[in-house]
Amino acid sequence: MKIALVLPPISLEERYGKAIAKVGGTLPPLGLLSLGTILKRASHQVIILDGSRTDFPSMLRIIFEEKPKIIGISVMTFTWPKVKEMIAMLKDKFPETFIVIGGVHATISKKKCLQESAQLDALVYGEGEYTLLELVNYIENGGDLNKIKGLIFRDNSFIVENPSRNVIENVDELSFPDRSLVNILDYVPAFSQYKKLPVTNIFTTRGCPYQCIFCIPDVLGKRIRYRSPEAVIEEIKYLKVEYGIKDIAFWDDTLTLNRKRLLEIIKLLKKNKLDILWSAQARANLVDKELLKEMASAGCWKIHYGLESMLQKNLDMLRKGTTVEQNFNAVKWTKEAKMEVEASFIFGIPRETFEDGLKTIKLVKKLDIDYARFFPLTPYGDLAEKLNDYGKLVCDDLSKFQGMEIVFVPYTMTKMELEKLITIAYTQFYFRPKYILKRVRKLTNIRNLRYTLSGVSAIYMIKTKGISKV
Q: Is residue 80 within 8 Å of residue 398, measured between CB atoms?
């Protein structure tokens, strides 16, 4: 059976705003590729339609030509308004096609999605690989929909929610994503995300054990599950041999979560003489000098830290589980290991004042960070459930819930103050003479110069127009 797996068409400007889109980029949709790999392994035909590279008219043309029996759409909260429109248009043009959605928003909202989209046939929640496979087999061969765990579907005028599916314990059984479903060499991420081309991304874990109040509920479970170091190395070997990949972006939320496992991966990278650059995401409380030196010695050139704030009361409010001292140490030790540091910060934290925000900005400038990103707090998770305890929504348009626009303001500051904080943070961080001099010293080629000029233009747009208008 032929299945089309779709990532909704969202432009970089819609995702990041006009300013940040200037320095944005994309990487392959690993979630869809994992689903497609399972379906291909079961002898189904799979088409991947990636909305970061294909507009909706082109998708319609491909669907008309390929005539898939099933269309599966991955949905984030900020894409749901557009996806609802897509579903209506797809059903109008292809009424016999079965349409199913999955992803973060589907897992959060469940039945509500089918209530809001009359043309939607079914929804997969939680980990989708085996639920989708069983659904495809049902549509092809018949059976009992009620027995498919992790599925919500229509039964005449009723919406039926089946029991949830257990998480996949042995994630190695999924094998790694079949990149032949897309042209991975067409993907280029933001300049700060790679050193060499071609570059691509991989996941080595599933789940997140942390309880940050603002975070999207983890659709893959709170218990972390690891791919074996050997499986990770085999995937990297495959990417090098098949596609000539020179740079890997580890997309795990926290690659350093299991120190022993990461050291084993590093050992195998060296043993196999893979000679590849890579970057990772980590938590400030889960790195140390020795580990960072080992990472750098095996090709790691950059670590991204979600530091969030430089005030302890804010970190405690977010249930981040880190300290300001750990933030300082993580950055210091990473730079001592000769790696770059990217860090993200949040403003609009419950009980944070405008003056608190200014204190964070002052301390951020004391960190030796190469790239800083500043975001307004977007309420997901526990914060969304207890919203009225901490602040108020100033926007209920879900398309704005992409993390870049102000949709929530705590009772302790105004929307204007929050917008001003983000503008001040970007301009004071990036327009410092010391930082500018550091960037100038790194202008070793035309690509660096082009990116730097785009970055200057982006920050200037934020400075002159404000984050909400770009």
A: yes
Residue appearing with tokens 């059903």: 91
Q: What is the mean pLDDT of the chain?
A: 92
Cα separation, 140 vs 336, in Å, equals: 58
Cis peptide before 28 (omega within 30 of 0): no
Contact at 8 Å (CB) between 97 and 68?
Answer: yes
Query: Within its chain, how far is the Cα of 286 from the centroid?
Result: 20
Residue type, 147: K
Q: How far is it, in rounded angstroms, from Cα 12 to Cα 19?
A: 10
82-138 pLDDT, tens digit each: 999 999 999 999 999 999 999 999 999 999 999 999 999 999 999 999 999 999 999
Residue 382's contacts (CB-CB under 8 Å, 6 or more residues apart) are 211, 213
- Do the beta carbons of residue 195 and residue 253 sit within 8 Å? no
pLDDT number for residue 16: 63
State the DSSP string of 5-17.
Answer: EEE----HHHHHH
Query: For the stretch 402-437, what's the b/e string if a residue is b when 16 or more beta carbons lie within 10 angstroms of its beta carbon?
Result: bbbbbbbbbebbebebbbbbbbbbbbbbbeeeebee
User: Residue 206's pLDDT is what?
Assistant: 93
- Residues with Cβ < 8 Å from 24, sequence gap 6 or more? 12, 15, 16, 190
For 154, how many CA atoms within 13 A lie in the half-sphere containing its CB? 16
Q: Which residue has the tokens 């400030």?
A: 284
* Count of positions (residues) in the chain: 470
Q: What is the average per-residue pLDDT within 37-60?
A: 95
Element (DSSP H or E) covering residue 98: strand 98-102
DSSP code string of 188-244: ---GGG-SSSSEEEE--EE------TTSPPPTT-SS-EE--HHHHHHHHHHHHHHH-
Q: Which of 206-215, 223-232, 439-448 shows the lowest mean pLDDT across its residues? A: 439-448
What is the distance between the alpha carbons of residues 102 and 3, in angstroms, rounded to a whole number?
A: 14
Q: State in Å, rounded, how far the first CA of the chain is from the last one.
A: 44
Q: How far apart are CA 287 and CA 338, in angstroms?
A: 15
Q: What are phi and psi of 239, to 5 degrees?
A: -65, -35
Q: Which two tokens stand for residue 42?
A: 């079961």
How is residue 132 written in tokens? 């989708």
Radius of gyration of the chain (CA): 22
